[in-house]
Input
Amino acid sequence: MTTPALLAIDWGTTRFRAYLLDRAGAVLERVSSDDGIMAVKPGGFPAVLAIRCGMWLARHPDIPVIMAGMVGSRNGWIEAPYRACPATASEIAGAMAEVDIGNGRKARIVPGLSTRDAAGAPDVMRGEETLALGTGIENGTVILPGTHSKWVHIESGKIKSFATFMTGEFYATLLSQTILGKLREEPDDAAGFTKGLEAAKRPGGLTHQAFAARTSVLLGDMSGHEVAPFLSGLLIGSEVDAGLAMGQSGGDIVVIAEGIIVDSYTKALAARGRVCRLMATEECFTAGLARLLKA
Amino acid sequence: MTTPALLAIDWGTTRFRAYLLDRAGAVLERVSSDDGIMAVKPGGFPAVLAIRCGMWLARHPDIPVIMAGMVGSRNGWIEAPYRACPATASEIAGAMAEVDIGNGRKARIVPGLSTRDAAGAPDVMRGEETLALGTGIENGTVILPGTHSKWVHIESGKIKSFATFMTGEFYATLLSQTILGKLREEPDDAAGFTKGLEAAKRPGGLTHQAFAARTSVLLGDMSGHEVAPFLSGLLIGSEVDAGLAMGQSGGDIVVIAEGIIVDSYTKALAARGRVCRLMATEECFTAGLARLLKA
Output
């Protein structure tokens, strides 16, 4: 049997996921639960860790424990302050915070990263730095679609900068609260997604092109079934155009995602002449923590 | 006493406003009420008109009656089909629909306008065509801020094209439903508005720059009191940049608005080196209908 070498914990807002990894970063055992940090009472973090991973901790008293994600935020176990970009894996590893997990044992928490664009506007992320490092790419861009999508730009193996797009939150909010939602008919017709990708390239910006969906339905150019996919294509297309423009021009593009959103980003990138490689969240997380352990 | 020459009615979604005008378009008398088309039962339009304007109609049996606004929409008295741009005042006047208002008397309803941009994407407006004509400008742009802001481009006195921006609806929705609303503190600090205008010029687009507000508060760059003005500046700045880029480069800029929004648009245009002239809605409406009567 392979010897465990690391207890790696992905502790986010809504989910708790722990992995027992071997020296090569392969998953030997895994547990997951709904004990995200929002569900943990103040001071309750050690108890949750003991309940979910106590058996592993007892069985393997000497392996390191590293956590990443919102567990290191202001509302988490302890605040692991943001490390400024650019940042190498070893600089991130060197900035980890430490917490006591009982019996004199320590766990480390990966810090989030902060960045500033040329105009000085700040951005932050927490958890995505570990996933981005886990892709192993030397030069290129890692895209993490979601409520707040992240585009992480990697140069010579270090995280150079990144940018957040509120794509998922805009989609959900605009569809449920504006005139666009009233026009939506289900089931969705994917033809609207391609129209949305096209609209993202046209002048006028988001607030103008979103209204075009309403007018197109009114004038019979588009069906109500296309409204939600159109809005998705418009928002993702805008994100992809801006993300590509803000990063370096070459290098790999890796998308870390599961489910239907994979297809949306693959299509949006293809419509801009770009090919992407897909990776799964668990694969990137475990590889990222294994890399930080060695760094 | 001046002789009345026109009964002009601005019948929108939520308000009913009627004006008795003289030959020069000056207001002799006015009434207004909450009888917007949403408050009128099917078939109830003649009765509302009789209640609000019956005395004027009886006193002046020969003057023309012209209505504009959502009264000419699918949910109004009768649908006055959209007239395609470009459109002169006389072409719009020639496309008016007619309804029977009792005693063999007719009223006319101004049609809305439709347009298509270079890529074929459609846009529509109803009511704003009358206000735009009422500015009397020969070449330039008329801006009508609101839930769905309109930018109307006028060339040689005719309405050449226009564009809608969902600025007001995005503002209200994003502020009440997203992470931005949770950060907002009142009272508002207007310093955020200028920061939002600046952010609109930076790369990344709306979904990225909106997140910058959240990060700026988190990192102490901005106070919660600046969040709402920042979002307003970001959205209005984006609208102004896109609107100026989509129209002709020269000519007058007229903003038709009342209240606090006047200041926001004046500042946003000034930040882009443009001066605007302000006009009041009533003034533009009555001048617009007087112009359509003569056309």
Observations:
- Chain A touches chain B through 46 residues (CB under 8 Å).
- The longest helix of chain A spans residues 227-246.
- Chain A is about 40% helix and 25% strand.
- The first strand of chain A starts at residue 4 and ends at 11.
